[in-house]
Amino acid sequence: MRGRAPVAAPDAATVRQLAVLLQAGIAPEPAWRHLASLGGAPAGAVVARLKDEVPLARAIGAAGPGWGEIAAAWSVATTVGAPLASSLRGVADTLQDAADIRDEVRVALTEPMTTTRLMSWLPVIGLGLGVVLGFDSLRVLTTTPPGLVCLVLGVTLLVLAQLWSRDLARRAEPAPGIPGLRADLLAIAVSGGVSLERALTIVAQAHGGHDGADSDVRRILDLSRSAGVPAADLLRAEAGLARHRARTAGRMTAARLSTRLLLPLAVCTLPAFLLLGVAPMLLGIITTTVLPL
């Protein structure tokens, strides 16, 4: 197969447009072609793979990162005979919730990361302040042995602070994937009228061989069996709860990041300020006043 450029991750708008086309009675492959004609890169990637005679669900999953979830929902709905348009609308709502979670966490991360970036300029400001006040800080740092030691240690600490802060911010980013996806896929499967055991098997096959349920989802399935109530609504409620938990966890992680970023500030940035800003001024005073005596 010919190499193709990667496309954007799936978004709720694209999936909703596809659901509208399907609900209007357009067959799946023509529906994707209509989306591609509007200039959508993901739909274009799917249509290009269809020309290579790739099965539709596989073509959707191969469109790029994140499209495997859409392919799994498509495969489950078509396998059990669930309404494809309404299933995709539910997936679109799930995608929108997941995008909202990521956006909320990134907004919460903006303030502590901006503060960290501003504080990283503190050593440079200290060095510039020394020059403005008449201290020969640059000459001391670049020509004297003690100054060279301060320069190397200060720059090393600044680089370490940047790497440390970026690592903390990366860990605070939301985990990839869609919270509650497996519960949503199972809800689609059981809405097609298959048994719970068959639904688990179908979801496992569509989701890359992974088990179709975690402990929370299995608890919901056990509740459905014991109470004799339909599992679809319970599963959708569990999926919504999973996304609520992910949103809360993301906010808590972002809040904790403000405290954790104090570590590279205290351990690296402030010592770098002393080495690059204060130490050269003191060394300059010593070399110009004390040593000549």
UniProtKB/TrEMBL annotation:
The record's subcellular locations are: Cell membrane
UniProt entry tagged with the keyword Methyltransferase: no
Tell me what organism the protein belongs to: Microbacterium mangrovi
Transmembrane annotation, as ranges: 118-138, 144-164, 261-286
| One of the record's GO cellular component terms | plasma membrane
Keyword list (alphabetical) reads: Cell membrane, Membrane, Transmembrane, Transmembrane helix
**Topological relation to the membrane, as annotated:** Multi-pass membrane protein
Q: Where is the signal peptide?
A: none
Q: What is this protein identified as?
A: Pilus assembly protein TadB
Check the record and name the InterPro entries matching this protein. T2SS_GspF_dom
Q: What is the lineage of its organism?
A: Bacteria, Bacillati, Actinomycetota, Actinomycetes, Micrococcales
Taking every annotated instance into account, which residue ranges of this chain make up the domain Type II secretion system protein GspF? 15-128
